Amino acid sequence: MLQITELNKTYGDHQALRGLNLTVNKGEVFCLLGQNGAGKTTTINIALGFLPATSGSVAIDGWQVTPGGSNASKSVAYIPEVVMLYANLTAIENLDFFSQLAGYSYSKAELQSFLTDANLQADAHHKRVGTFSKGMRQKVGIAIAIAKNASVILMDEPTSGLDPRATDEFTRIVKNLAAQGKSVLIATHDIFNAVNIGTHIGIMKNGQLLHVVNAADITPDALQRLYLETI
Ligand SMILES: Nc1ncnc2c1ncn2[C@@H]1O[C@H](COP(=O)(O)OP(=O)(O)OP(=O)(O)O)[C@@H](O)[C@H]1O
What pLDDT is attached to residue 15? Predict the structure, then answer.
């Protein structure tokens, strides 16, 4: 579970986050919409412990996030827009490397099962990732999150640049993660996919969450109208 409470962040004299409150329970997928500069990346970076908050708190499964690593960071995984992997290593070698970095040592069979859980086709497990598409890199990133046993997964613009088939596959993978009890937070500009993939959708403006809606209660058209009225 991810719990953000009264989070403020100031860069110099610019206030990027203003008393942000946001909760993602187990099994929920929270899509965070907002214009460029609304504060989505700042929120993710504080939740990861990459940036200190000015005030307020972020907790992962009840553990407070503190900059530079904590018990909380062990339970959180990040899938950036482009997942950075070692181009000359295979998918399974990358997964093994990053799992070991997180303190886990898995057998080859276990590593393969994580890649399969992330929907990476078997014939790609032993291919170097240098040739992988964005979607395939994402699957390795998701396998790393599964191997790390992360209970909270944060994603930045995961569907930008994915073709419709890859987006549909990604949607199914994320729904599966949620069904396994993960909490997923996705910063996105993709309104249509937010309705498809999310259980909850938040609209952020100037560092505040102005609306939170249940994805089941809104159509993409209605969400687009609400978004345009809000930002
Ligand atoms: N290191 C920094 N120093 C100064 N200002 C910053 C810094 N990082 C972000 N900001 C400012 O804080 C605000 C929030 O930025 P942030 O990157 O969190 O927004 P965002 O919603 O993620 O935007 P995008 O959709 O473009 O990624 C913006 O006004 C941005 O210019």
Answer: 96
